[in-house]
Amino acid sequence: MNDTLTAYSGLLRSSTQVALTYRGRIVLWFVSGLFPLLLMAVWLTVSAESGPPAGWTSADFISYYAAAALLWNLSGQHVVWEWDADMRSGDLSVRLLRPIHPFHQYTASDLGHRAVSLMMLLPVLVLAALLVPGINYPLGVFDAVAVLAAVVLAYLVSLVMASTFAIVGFWSTQAANLWMLWWGIGSFASGWVAPLDLMPPWLRNAALVLPFRATIGFPVELMIGHLDIRATLVGFAVGLAWLAVFSGLYVCLWRRGLRRYQAVAG
Amino acid sequence: MSIEVHGLVKHFRVHQRKPGLRTSLRGLVRREYVEVRAVDDVSFSVAAGEVVGFLGPNGAGKTTTLKCLTGLLHPSEGTVRVLGHTPQRRESSFLRQISLVMGQRNSLFWDLPALDAFEVNRAMYRIGEPAFRAALDELIALLNLEPLLGKQVRVLSLGERMRCELAGALLHIPAVLFLDEPTLGLDVNGQAAVRSFLRDYNARRGATVLLTSHYMGDVTALAKRVLVIDRGTLRFDGNLAVLVEAHSPHRLIRLSLQRPVPVDTWSAYGEVDSVEGAVVTLRVPRAETTAVAGRLLADLPVVDVGIEDLPIEDVIRAVFAGE
């Protein structure tokens, strides 16, 4: 454990340096990080033309999507692409030869990139929260702690879920595409495209037990004060349960997958 | 023993795909697989501090064996022990004691200077600051890295990058060093620098080195013992000189003469390998070399004479050809 923490310090430093290398890439991250705000614009138009859908006011949408932009940037699902590229090229071999599990190497790399991305986005969102009328996060101390815990849980669920799909690459070259398909469902069931309150009841009910809501919708709903204590506890329970499921799956697939690894390309 | 390998077998199941649209369509519903035995019943051991060259043509099984020894691949059959560890368990204590340098792989960070990658290695291998500084200073001096440390890895030449790769791989002072084509693509100066460094590293640290290379110069410069592998099977394990003697029944006598002599003179001494003016190279049976050389000196106007073995490339070619 101590070894891993020491390694994280070095890996985080280098991944942050890598993330800071290209200015153009940072700008692209920043712009793509604001994508939920486009979805917000759509809903604001709908709200203005047809009245508040399901009781959601313009202020609710603004608060929701500003928080969703933050959560989207904090998602750990980007690790899929790095895993996938390394498995195809054989560069996973380099990581396997190091005395730190590749999971930690990819996670540290992702955290470095998240840090740079947030460094750009967070000031904008904080300014927006202070200056844009209607944005409201009614958080007491207990709520703030709960939100922080939900955000950490969101990162962990998205990270472990994505890593589990990534190591399907030991069996198939289509792991990244499989993830795309999975996240195609997730984009609706997570609350990323639209708040789950606005979804058909069957999807809303399904989303409550699927893993996706824990990655975006749950912490965002908590931030904007839409959840009572019972719904909060259920949200945490579902998120933790999925974290346990994907962690177990990951460990199992990893052990079996390593036996199949062919260390391709030289 | 540093390395012990008994009955190592590694086979892969490979999708067989034939050309043509019809076979592509058939492949959608029915796939054909073949089992490829990349390594077939290979056994050997390497003592601590020994430098061993691993020779074989492309696809012979050299790299697959190295990957089994480093834990990247799980053996299909047989046992492998390196420093008392079973490599495929990938124990941290094992990984901290080995290094695999692959000529065609980049283990540094493409967008960062090599020094940053070295710092990451320091954290991952938990190298203390004094030990890190001492190892780095030594490697900087031996590999002449000072001018390279501040440059992004992606702007380095292949030779410069390989020197940095070697330094990164050795910072934690591995007890066993696996080298897979470490001089691949390097120019003559680059090859010489890497060879000289590896020889020096082995002498200073007493590290066990297992080396594969297509450049015979790497092997002759570094290893006394060679393993020759072909189509997954170990064909020879022993001293390089013994290999040369066993597979090379001839030696070369190189003569510098005061003046050219008639071509038909040479048939009495041996087979002509080459004639360049007054310099003649003869190929003679190994057992008769001394006697023939004596006769040549007595009979002809010889200015200088040299006796040497056939180039190692020719010997290895003979081994693979089954001669």
Proportion in β-strands of chain B: 25-35%
Distance between the termini of chain A: 32 Å
Poorly predicted runs of chain A are: none
Largest interface: A-B, 29 and 35 residues
The tally of beta strands of chain B, per DSSP, is 13
Range of helix content of chain B: 25-40%
* Strand content range of chain A: under 5%
What does the radius of gyration of chain A come to?
19 Å
Total number of helices of chain A: 12
Task: Explain the overall architecture.
Chain A is an all-alpha fold. In chain A, 74% of the residues lie in helices and 0% in strands. In chain A, α4 (58-74) packs antiparallel against α7 (102-131). The longest helix of chain A is centred in the C-terminal third of the chain and has 32 residues, at 229-260. With 323 residues, chain B is α/β, with parallel strands linked by helices. Chain B has 11 helices and 13 strands. Chain B has helices at 21-29, 62-69, 92-95, 114-124, 129-143, 158-170, 188-205, 216-222, 240-247, 289-299, 312-320, and strands at 3-16, 32-46, 51-55, 77-82, 98-102, 176-180, 208-212, 225-230, 233-239, 250-257, 271-276, 279-285, 302-309. In chain B, the strands form 3 sheets. Chain B has a 6-stranded mixed β-sheet, sandwiched between helices. Chain B has a 4-stranded antiparallel β-sheet with strand order 11-12-10-13, covered by helices on one side. A 3-stranded antiparallel β-sheet of chain B has the order 2-1-4. In chain B, α4 (114-124) runs parallel beside α6 and α5 runs antiparallel to α6. The longest helix of chain B is centred in the middle third of the chain and has 18 residues, at 188-205. Chain B is globular and about 70 Å long. The model of chain B has no long low-confidence stretch (mean pLDDT 87). Classes of the chains: A mainly alpha (266), B alpha/beta (323). The A-B interface holds A 3, 6-11, 13-14, 17-18, 21-22, 90-91, 93-94, 96-100, 258-259, 261-263, 265-266 and B 12, 63, 67, 70-74, 88, 90, 92, 95-96, 98-100, 102, 104-107, 109, 111-112, 116-117, 119-126, 180.
